[in-house]
Structure formats: C-alpha cells, structure tokens
Amino acid sequence: MNPTLAAAALSLISAVAYASAAVAQERLAARSAGSGTLRLLAQGAWWWSVTLNASAALLHVAALKYGTLTLVQPLGALTLVAAVPLGARVAGRRVSAVEWRGTALTLAGLAALLVTASGAAPDEVLSLPQALAVAGTTAAVIGALARGARPGLRHATAAGFASGVASALTQTVTVAATDRSDSPLSAQVVVVALLVAAFAAGGLLLSQTAYQGGLGAPLAVVTLANPLAAAAIGLSLLGERLQGGAAGLLLALAGASVAAWGVVTLSRSAPEPAATADAHPDGLADDDHPVAAVLALEPNGAAYEPSLVPRQTDSGHLTSR
After folding, report:
1. What would the pLDDT profile of 175-224 be if each residue is shown by its tens digit?
2. Who is most buried in 49, 156, 193, 239, counting CB within 10 A?
3. What is the crossing angle of helices 216-237 and 187-210, to 10°?
4. How many Cα neighbours within 13 Å face the side chain of 26?
C-alpha cells in the first residue's frame, strides 16, 4: 500500500477510536464522580474506553511509521471531525449547520495538506544529541509558557507543543526500533522513549489545566499548536519536504489556514465545563456540542451511557440507552 494512504487510513481510524473513547469517558466520569477510583476500575465500560484509547494510540504510532510528521500530525484534527456525528448521535440531535461548516472546512484543508505532504515512508530519525536538544528547548519553552497557576491559552499552547514533540520523538523510536541494522533496545531508543513518556504526560497535565476555563479557545489552540511543533521538527531536522515546490508550499499554507478555520469553527461553540448531572432532572448534562466530549477532562460532564446507539422512547424523542 502507498505509505501516504496507509498513514491517512491509520490516522482516520485512530481519530474515530479517540473520539469514541472520549465520549464514553466523559459520560462515565460524571456518573462516577465522588464514587472513588476502585469503583471506577470495577466498571467494564471504563476498561472499554481505556482499550479504545490504547488502540487509538497504537494506530497513531503506526501512522507515524508510514507517514511524515507534516502529514500525520495535522490529521489529528480528524478527532474533532469524528466527534461531530458521534456527539450528535449520543445527544439525540441533528448535526448543526455550524458543525457541518466546520467539518467541511477542516476536511478541505486537510485534503490540501494530504496532497502536499505525501511522500515516502519516513526513514530519518533524530540522533540522541538532537533528541536531547529538542527536549531541552521544548522544556524551556513550556516552562516559560506555563508560568503561573491561572489557566489560559498559554497552557494550551504549551500542551500542544508538548504533545507535538512527543509525537516527533515517537516517530524516532518507531523507525529506530524497527530498523534491523540496529538493536531495538539501543540507548537511543530507550532514552527517547523515556522522553516520549515525559512529554506525553506533561501534555496531558497541561491540557487539563488549560481546559479548566472552558474548552472552546484552548481546544483550538492545542489542536493547532500540536502539528505546528511536530512539523517544525520534521522540516528542520528530519529532512521532510513539501511536494510541488513553491506552488506546493502555497497550497500547504492555504490548506493549513482553511483547516485551522475549520478547527476554530468546531471549537468556538464548545460549552464551558459541564454542570453536574444533578442540574438536569433526567440525569443527563448538556451535550449540545460534541467537542465537549472529545477532550472531556472535567469530572462533572454528562452522565455515562453505555451505548452510542440511540433508542426511541415512548415520548417520541431520541435518547441513548
């Protein structure tokens, strides 16, 4: 299979898995609020969402094996696109015109990037000194951005940078570990893998801080900063190039702008942290926008429903089981 198509297909499946897991986790978190970790671990639905998340992460790693950073990382926005129909179906409503517009813009922009960023499977990796230099520089930038406890867009930017660098380092681990000319457990692989774990965990914690004030703008910033950081590493250190020369560069810039517009459109109407289920007589919190479930990091989101398939109630309204 063509490496570009393989990377795109794996990224799409990964995005659907991430969105599905996030919907389930968001709803489970509300029902389990205050019940304790042990009770949460005893629920099969929680393990199902963990399995989905783990599968999505493995698919993303596989995509990085076949596609360049400038291709795979922007496709992470497909998680938002996948969340639109999933969120609408769980909420028992139609996809709004704003969501359709955001989805169309995001897909159009990503299609342009897919054309310009296509190419052979990556074979370049960061050397150990390069990986350490990238890690040190990124840590310094994150420290400057995350200074201060008040959540804001600075934390969202830092979270996006951390996640983007984690993916860039993951690609080095994946390519180096599968290179038969060297040991899969070489010092380079082990050290860079530890850096991946550190930046992935840091990105998660920073995003949790950023989303305390609401999902809308921080979510857009995280989604856009992630591929920006990864593409900077790919283009400057890994020899990645855009196809088509000057025309390809213009197409890539146009595609990135359109995709960013779509991401902002999908994110701008995301609600503030959801209220507890007690605020709703039927036990369900407000799920008016699917992005609220994509990165559902607040413990008081919508109540958990084990099935994404809606059923018809006696009142004639769609709801989920």
Report:
1. 888 876 666 677 788 999 999 999 999 888 888 888 777 777 888 888 89
2. 156
3. 160
4. 31
Spatial distance between the Cα atoms of 321 and 319, rounded to a whole number of angstroms: 7
Query: What is the maximum alpha-carbon separation in the chain?
Result: 65
Distance CA(153)–CA(217), nearest Å, equals 7
Q: Supply the pTM of this predicted model.
A: 0.75
Rounded CA gap, 184 and 190, in Å? 9
Please give the full DSSP string across 170-226, using - where no structure is assigned.
Answer: HHHHHHHHT-TTS-TT-HHHHHHHHHHHHHHHHHHHHHHHHGGG-SHHHHHHHHHHH
Question: Residues 295, 320: contact at Cβ < 8 Å?
Answer: no
Write out the two tokens for 128. 């150990």
3-class secondary structure per residue, 9-56: HHHHHHHHHHHHHHHHHHHHHHHCCCCCHHHHHCCHHHHHHHHHHHHH
